[in-house]
Specification:
Length: 870
C-alpha cells in the first residue's frame, strides 16, 4: 500500500518530536546525575523563633519537587517535624495541608533551646531539612489537661495545677449566634465548652469533599475557635462524631439518619453498620483522625477528645451497652485507643451515651467518664439529688474523673435554678466538671446574663479549692429532714452545700453534721451562693464530728472549712447575741492560746470592750487548759429598730511575765429579742361600749398592742388581718351599719424593740343589734315576754342580767333547727332589750310560724316561744 506525500510528512514530524522528547529526558537524567536530585523541601519557615511555654510553635514547610495526588492522604505525602527538647526528649509531629500551605504545629513544654528539622516522604523518596532551633521561654500557662496522678477523680494541668471544669454545651454556629460566648464565659470564670463538628456546621468531610478530602473553610473556622478559646483560657471538649452523622435508617430513634444523607462515608460503605466494621472505612477514618490531631492537638485549649457523642444513637439497630461484641462497642475501643496511641500531646479520651446508665464496658475504655441526662426537667431539686447519688456511685466504683456532659431543661423559667443546683451538687459530690447545660439557640436557648453571673459566684467559691492536693474524699455529711447536704472532706480542708428540699421562703438556719474530721479546730466560712459573698466565718471545734448551724439563707448555702492553727494570742471564735433575752449581754467565744497548757506561761485571758474609742478591761478568765472558752459579757447599748449599735471586743492572753497579746477585734450587736407576754383573759364586753378587754402587760419595755380580726375561724396573725395598734387594754369594736355575722379577734403585745408576742386566744363575736336600757344592776335574772307577739317586722325581748356572764342567744324553729344567732359574747350586768327582725343567719326572711328564743349561759337557760306572721 502506498502512503501519500502528506501522510509521509506528518509521520516524519511526529517521529522528530518523539526523538526530541527522548533527548530531553536524557538531558534531565544527565542533569540530575551531575548536580543531584531536586530537593523535596525548599525551605522551613517558623512563624516565630521565641515561643512562650505551652504556646503554638508553627512552621511552614515549603516543598520543592514533590509528587502526590491527594494532600490529605498520608500514604501519598507525609510531612513531619522532628524535635528535640532541652532535656533531650524527642517528639515527632505530623504536618497537614491547610489549603494553601504545609504546616506543622507544636507546643513546647520545657523552657530552653529546642532543635528541629522537617522530614518529607512523597513515597518516591524522602528528604530532610537542615537542623534549626527556637527558644522556649517560661509563661503563665499551665499546659495540657490530664487525669491527675495525685487524685485520679480529678483533672490537672501539666504542671500539677488543679483544673475544675465549669462550662456549658454550645456545639455549633458559634460566631453566627453567640459571638460573645468566649468573653462571657471568661468573665464568669468558666473554662469548659463542648463543641461538635456536625454536618450542618463544621464537619470536615462533606458531600462535596468526599470521604478522602476535607473542607478547608470549615477547618479554618475551627482554627479560630481554638485560638479564641486559648486567648480566653477556655478548653474544648471536641466531639469527633455526633450520633446523627453515624446513624442510619432502621435505628430505633427514627430521627435524623444523617449518615444516609450527609456523611460521604456512605459512598464508601453502606449501610451505616459497615462504617464501624469495614477495614476500608477504618483506613479512611484514620486519615481524618490524623488530620484532626495534627491541626489542633498542639493546643492547650483541647481538653478532651470526645470520640462519639451518644453511642446508643448510632448505627442502624439497638445498642447493647454491655455486649462487648456489639460492633459499636468494638469500634469505640478502636477509636479511643487510636487517639491515645497517636496523640503526642496526650489529651484524655471520652465517649458517651444518651443517658446516665452504668456503662462498664465503655467506662473501662475511656480516660474520663461522661454521662448525659434529661430527666426531671421541671424539678431541679430532685435532679440535684439524683446527680448526687450518681456521682457517689462513679466515685466509689471507678478511679476516674466523671461528669455529666449534657443535661438541662426546656423550661426556660427554671434554667437558672437548674444550672445553679447542677453546678453546686457536682462540686460537693465528686464530679470533675460541673454538669454541662445544653444550649443550642433554639428551643433550648442560650445562657442569659443572669446565668453567667450566677456561675461567676460558683467559680469564685471553687477557685481556691486544691482538688489535687487536699486529699479529698466523699464526706460523711448529714442534715435535718428538710434539707439535703453533701460535701467533700480532706485532711485539713472540706467544703459542703446545703439545699432546701422545698426552696422558697428564707430559712433562719439549717444544721449540718460532718463526720471524720478528727480532733481539730476548724475555720468555717459560710457562702451565699446567689450573690457570691462570704457572709460569716466562725471557728469550730470537732471531736471527730462537727455540728454547725448555718446563717439564714434562701434556697441553699455553701460552707468551706480549713484547719486552724493555734497561736500565742487567743483566736476569737465569734461573738453572738444571747437569744431570748432583753439585750445588753452577748456571748464571747475564743480558742485557747498555744501557751495555755500545763506548765505553760499563759495565766489569764483579759476581755476588753472598746468604749468611745478607748479599750477598757471588763472581765477576765483564768487560763485552765481548755480548748475553747465562752464568757457572757455586757454591752453598753442595744440595737433596735431605730438604729444599729455595735459593741467591739477583743481577748488577750496574759503571760506570767505580765505581757498581754490580744486577738483581733470583733464586733457584735446586743438585741432585746424577748417579746412581751401574750395578752390573756381577752373577753368581749358590751358596756360601757361594745369591745374587747384583756389583762394589761407589765413589762418595762412594753410599747403597745396590735389588734387583728378575720371572718375565718382559726386565722393566723398576718398583715392582711391587721386592724390597728392601741396603747390601752381595751379595744372598742365599731360595727358597720347593717352588719350581721361572725368575726374573730386576736391581740398581740409589742415592745419598744419591735418584738411581737404570739397572738392571744381567739375571741368569737356574733353581732346583731342589742340595747342596754339601764346600767342599774338587777337583783335577779329574768327573761320577759317579747312584744309585739305575734309580729311581722321586729320584736323586742327584754332581759335582766344580774352578773357578768358569757351568753349565747339563738333562734330555732319549732322543729329545733337553728335559724339565727342574736348574741354571742360577754355581757355586763344591766337591763337589755334584744331584737329579732325575722331574718335567718343568711339574711333571708323566715316563713310564718312559731319560733323558739333560746337564752343560754352557765347559770341560766331559758326558752320562750315567739310567733312570726308575714
Amino acid at each position: 500500500m502506498r502512503v501519500s506525500l502528506k501522510n509521509e510528512r506528518d509521520f516524519k514530524a511526529i517521529y522528530r518530536l518523539f526523538i526530541l522528547s527522548i533527548f530531553l529526558v536524557l538531558i534531565l537524567i544527565i542533569s540530575n546525575n551531575a548536580f543531584g536530585q531536586l530537593p523535596l523541601i525548599s525551605s522551613v519557615v517558623p512563624e516565630n523563633s521565641v515561643i512562650p511555654k505551652y504556646s503554638k510553635f508553627q512552621v511552614d514547610v515549603n516543598l520543592g519537587m514533590a509528587y502526590f495526588s491527594n494532600p490529605f492522604n498520608p500514604y501519598d505525602i507525609d510531612i513531619k517535624l522532628k524535635l528535640t527538647g532541652p532535656s533531650n526528649q524527642k517528639y515527632v509531629i505530623n504536618g497537614f495541608w491547610d489549603g494553601s500551605n504545609w504546616l506543622v504545629r507544636f507546643s513546647p513544654n520545657e523552657a530552653g533551646t529546642w532543635s528541629y528539622y522537617a522530614w518529607v516522604n512523597d513515597y518516591n523518596r524522602t528528604d530532610s531539612s537542615s537542623v534549626e532551633t527556637f527558644t522556649c521561654t517560661e509563661s503563665d500557662y499551665h499546659g495540657f489537661i490530664r487525669v491527675s496522678d495525685n487524685n485520679p477523680h480529678y483533672l490537672e494541668y501539666s504542671d500539677n495545677t488543679p483544673f475544675y471544669g465549669i462550662g456549658q454545651c454550645r456545639c455549633w454556629h458559634i460566631y453566627e449566634q453567640v459571638p460573645n460566648i468566649f468573653t462571657d464565659m471568661k468573665n464568669a470564670g468558666m473554662n469548659t465548652l463542648v463543641y461538635w463538628m456536625p454536618d450542618w456546621d463544621n464537619m470536615l468531610v462533606t458531600n462535596i469533599t468526599g470521604y478522602d478530602s476535607y473542607d478547608m473553610s470549615r477547618a479554618a473556622e475551627i482554627d479560630q475557635i481554638v485560638e479564641d478559646c486559648e486567648y480566653n483560657n477556655i478548653t474544648l471538649i471536641l466531639t469527633i462524631w455526633n450520633h446523627d452523622e453515624i446513624r442510619g435508617a432502621g435505628h430505633p430513634w427514627n430521627i435524623r439518619p444523617y449518615y444516609d444523607e450527609y456523611n460521604p462515608f456512605r459512598n464508601l460503605v453502606s449501610p451505616v453498620n459497615l462504617f464501624f466494621v469495614e477495614d476500608t472505612s477504618w483506613y479512611y477514618q484514620e486519615w481524618l483522625y490524623r488530620y484532626i490531631v495534627a491541626r489542633w492537638g498542639y493546643s492547650r485549649a483541647i481538653q478532651q477528645w470526645h470520640t462519639v457523642c451518644e453511642m446508643d444513637g448510632t448505627g442502624n439497630s439497638s445498642f447493647s451497652r454491655e455486649n462487648s461484641y456489639d460492633y459499636r462497642n468494638l469500634w469505640m475501643v478502636r477509636i479511643n485507643n487510636w487517639f491515645r496511641d497517636n496523640d503526642p500531646f496526650g489529651h484524655p479520651v471520652t465517649s458517651s451515651l444518651s443517658y446516665d446508665a452504668i456503662w462498664n464496658y465503655g467506662f473501662q475504655n475511656m480516660d474520663i467518664i461522661q454521662v448525659h441526662d434529661y430527666n426531671n426537667q421541671n424539678d431541679p431539686v430532685k435532679n440535684a439529688s439524683v446527680y448526687a447519688g450518681k456521682h457517689h456511685q462513679f466515685w466509689q466504683s471507678y478511679e476516674k474523673p466523671a461528669y455529666y456532659g449534657e443535661f438541662g431543661t426546656g423550661n426556660s423559667s427554671i434554667v437558672l435554678e437548674y444550672v445553679h443546683y447542677g453546678a453546686w451538687v457536682g462540686l460537693v459530690t465528686g464530679a470533675a466538671i460541673t454538669p454541662l447545660d445544653w444550649n443550642d439557640g433554639g428551643s433550648w436557648g442560650d445562657f442569659t446574663p443572669e446565668v453567667y453571673e450566677d456561675l461567676s459566684h460558683f467559680a469564685n467559691f471553687a477557685s481556691d479549692i486544691d482538688f489535687i492536693h487536699w486529699g479529698l474524699n466523699i464526706g460523711d455529711v448529714s442534715t435535718s429532714s428538710s434539707f439535703y447536704a453533701w460535701g467533700m472532706v480532706g485532711d485539713e480542708h472540706a467544703f459542703a452545700w446545703i439545699l432546701d428540699k422545698s426552696p422558697g421562703e428564707a430559712e433562719e438556719s439549717a444544721p449540718i453534721t460532718i463526720n471524720g474530721l478528727g480532733e481539730n479546730i476548724w475555720h468555717a466560712y459560710w457562702y451565699n451562693t446567689w450573690n457570691g459573698e462570704y457572709i460569716r466565718d466562725d471557728y469550730e471545734i470537732s471531736d471527730g464530728s462537727l455540728i454547725l448551724y448555718s446563717p439564714s439563707f434562701v434556697k441553699d448555702i455553701a460552707l468551706k472549712l480549713h484547719k486552724a492553727q493555734l497561736l500565742s494570742q487567743p483566736i476569737a471564735l465569734n461573738l453572738q447575741d444571747v437569744p431570748d433575752d432583753q439585750g445588753f449581754v452577748v456571748n464571747l467565744n475564743w480558742i485557747r492560746s498555744i501557751d495555755d497548757t500545763t506548765g505553760g506561761s499563759a495565766t489569764k485571758y483579759i476581755i476588753q470592750r472598746k468604749d468611745s474609742g478607748i479599750w477598757n478591761s471588763i472581765d477576765s478568765v483564768d487560763a485552765s487548759g481548755l480548748l475553747k472558752y465562752q464568757k457572757q459579757v455586757s454591752t453598753i447599748i442595744n440595737s433596735t429598730s431605730e438604729g444599729e449599735f455595735w459593741s467591739i471586743f477583743r481577748v488577750g492572753t496574759k503571760f506570767s511575765s505580765g505581757e498581754v497579746i490580744f486577738s483581733d477585734a470583733d464586733s457584735v450587736q446586743s438585741i432585746d429579742n424577748l417579746p412581751p407576754a401574750v395578752p390573756n383573759n381577752v373577753v368581749l364586753i358590751s358596756s360601757p361600749n361594745l369591745g374587747l378587754e384583756w389583762s394589761p402587760n407589765t413589762e418595762e419595755d412594753f410599747s403597745h398592742y396590735s389588734v387583728y380580726m378575720s371572718s375565718t375561724i382559726g386565722f393566723e396573725i398576718s398583715q392582711e388581718c391587721f386592724v390597728c395598734d392601741i396603747d390601752t387594754n381595751f379595744y372598742e369594736i365599731t360595727v358597720p351599719v347593717g352588719y350581721c355575722g361572725y368575726s374573730y379577734w386576736r391581740i398581740t403585745a409589742k415592745d419598744i424593740h419591735g418584738n411581737e408576742s404570739d397572738g392571744s386566744e381567739e375571741v368569737e363575736f356574733y353581732y346583731t343589734e342589742i340595747a342596754l336600757k339601764k346600767t342599774d344592776i338587777p337583783e335577779k335574772f329574768s327573761l320577759e315576754n317579747n312584744y309585739p307577739n305575734p309580729f311581722n317586722s321586729t320584736t323586742i325581748i327584754p332581759c335582766s342580767i344580774p352578773e357578768r356572764e358569757d351568753i349565747t342567744i339563738n333562734i330555732y324553729n319549732f322543729n329545733g333547727s337553728f335559724v339565727k344567732t342574736i348574741w354571742k359574747g360577754n355581757l355586763v350586768p344591766g337591763y337589755y332589750e334584744f331584737s329579732w327582725d325575722g331574718l335567718d343567719n343568711s339574711g333571708c326572711m323566715v316563713s310564718s310560724g312559731i319560733y323558739l328564743f333560746s337564752f343560754n349561759s352557765v347559770k341560766h337557760k331559758e326558752i320562750m316561744k315567739i310567733t312570726f306572721l308575714k
